[in-house]
Amino acid sequence: MPADSPNPPAPLVACHECDLLQHDVPIAPGETARCVRCGAELARNPPDSLDRTLAYTLTAAILYVLANAFPLIGLELQGRYAEVTLFAAVRNLWHIGMQPVSALVFVTAQLFPLLEMLMILLVLVPLRLGRRSPRLVAFFRLVLSVRPWGMMEVFLLGMLVSLVKLAHSGSVILGTAFWATAALILILTLAGRAFDRRVLWRMSHPEDA
Amino acid sequence: MKPALTARQAGLLSCHVCGQLAQAPLDANQRSRCPRCAAPLHQRKPASINTTWALLVAAALLYLPANLLPIMVTSSPVNHQVDTIMSGVIFLWRDGQWPLALVVFFASVVVPLLKILALVYLTASVQMRSRHRVMQRARLYRVVEFVGRWSMLDIYVITLLVALVQFRGLATVDAGPAAVAFGAVIVLTMFAALTFDPRLIWDPLTDSETADHD
What we know:
The structure holds two protein chains of two kinds. Chain A is α+β, with helices and mostly antiparallel strands.
């Protein structure tokens, strides 16, 4: 059995979905390593990860400002006009007695996506400038716990469904924030694909490399 | 072929966050932290089965008010319409907007129900230490993890419609109590998927090689 000398520094990884130990083989840029037993993704090696992730995340941060500063949708009904921003919609839910739903929308569509972007920048900018600190790595754990709760892409679909429903009652105007949100989701997807967590673990502990 | 060896069999803990392997402490009750990223280390997610059950029971109970109570109230001078999730879908279908009706039906009715049923099946099979269809169950868990978030669709639609359609005397839209229950179902099932540990699906396979006392 190879269990005789299970020394952690050996180049082994355990699959996070099925716990199987396997060799941490080097992977070429653009390649993905998968678990031999369950097929879960073990590691990816996106080319030029740090620079690309930073570029995409900075772009996303600018789009986020636009997506929140301008109205999402406008509606004209028999000469009367209304438009909403995301935060106005959240505040409205709060005031009509739907506080739990309002909080849920605020957290999933506004707060957590923002926190995720800010924390990625807070960790990657110092890394890019050559500063390495184990505290950054500990801090990065927060990013991973926030990530499942950001649901901007579902929000975009929600906007589309709302548009179709509203198209019956009046004329609908797509606001600046609608397009900014659509672009933001595209950029966030690219940022997620460009990001390689291992860059972080490796750079923060140079003695491991 | 050499026998499969898991980190647990090798006496190693793998960090949930960064994947770093570390020696498990000799005393099982001793808590340890990842040497690289300082996350708490566990062999398996703590109390995974019990926590997942509790969350699933709560979600299943709230699934009823979420579907039976009104979620949206639409008023105009000629018409006052109270909709549940399902009646909203039927209204869209009759209105000829069947692609939209299908999207809402899947996101709001099918996904939460299937997610609860799938997690019940997974948790029960893990508790009974089943060795059947392991790969299929592992895939099922991945699907459940991925699709759950799309149930938020209706919550966002209501948020936007309620904020936008407030033309007094012409048309207003209000949210009903089902919105709160439905939001709770989504949050509870998301936590249930997070507390479930997929490694438990695979554990019975390797336990057969070592001594298994239960």
